[in-house]
Amino acid sequence: MALSDDNLKGVTLALLSSGFIGASFIIKKKGLRKAAAASGIRAGVGGFSYLLEPLWWVGMITMILGEVANFVAYAFAPAVLVTPLGALSIIVSAVLAHFILKERLHALGILGCVMCIAGSVIIVVHAPQEREITSVREIWNMATQPAFLLYVASVVVLVFVLIFRFAPCYGQSNVLIYTGICSLMGSLSVMSVKALGTSLKLTFEGMNQLVYPETWFFMLVVATCVLTQMNYLNKALDTFNTAIVSPIYYVMFTTFTILASVIMFKDWDGQSIGSVTSEICGFIVVLSGTILLHITKDYDKNPSRGGFTQISPSLTARLNGEMLKNVEDGEMSSNGEIIVNFKRPDSY
């Protein structure tokens, strides 16, 4: 697919953004672990000690750099083109988690990552061209159309239900709760980022958009949504495996964002049925890849299919030595049996 100059800039910035954001997941989780070890209170159960951990702030700055690049990308290219490229952050975070956090990425997980990328490529190839916008008020008219207002109302209701009804009961056991909150709010933040980025782009081109109150309203929405995303993304990262959080967050975030963009900017208007079908197929491929990643999450906790825990040879030797020592220290019963006082080794 031939890309225009603006679309090429947007794709390049989106790729850089994904690299920064993928790395930030790992850096922030390292910071969360250090903070939890120092304070004894994890972010997943309401702790905020990570705010005093320098490593977490390094990760946060890395994420901000990625988000800035992503912000600028939306000013040059449509959301349906920029957003799917976030799949690269899945690869970056999963690979780094494998080597740095020792969160093992299995063969199915690798296949899942490849499928996520393949699905994203399909979406990008068939993505529609962005419509030309000359004023922030054009975007405001799109944002206040009945269909998009209904979407916004639905998102707000779902987020409140997830936060106050499901998060207290299932947040620690179901990865979809925290990632769902992040993804829903993220879809609104992207629409506002698109509006704000376009406003700033037009302003730099000589058409001042800062005089319109709509620009400042979009800025307020961005700040509110990003703060909410940051809070619940921290909870998700602290509670679940990074290699699982990243792809699930990506799929949900991408799905809701493109749905919001289709409703607000009417991206699929004028596209052929074949192109729309191809984009949907791309989503199915990405979703399939995420499922493959998801089913590997318990492998490290339950390595054996039969339900027995595998023990390393070194640990087996230590246990055998301890058992022999206990047998030597045992007593003889009246019927000639050895009474063994087996004690758990001091450390494994």
From TrEMBL:
Keywords: Cell membrane, Endosome, Ion transport, Magnesium, Membrane, Transmembrane, Transmembrane helix, Transport. It is a multi-pass membrane protein. The chain crosses the membrane at residues 12-28, 40-65, 71-101, 108-128, 148-168, 175-196, 216-233, 240-264, 276-295. GO terms for cellular component: early endosome; plasma membrane. The keyword Ion transport applies. It is found in: Cell membrane; Early endosome; Membrane. The keyword Membrane applies. GO terms for molecular function: magnesium ion transmembrane transporter activity. Homodimer. Acts as a Mg(2+) transporter. Can also transport other divalent cations such as Fe(2+), Sr(2+), Ba(2+), Mn(2+) and Co(2+) but to a much less extent than Mg(2+). PANTHER family: MAGNESIUM TRANSPORTER-RELATED (PTHR12570:SF19), PTHR12570. Belongs to the NIPA (TC 2.A.7) family. This is Probable magnesium transporter. It comes from Rhynchospora tenuis.
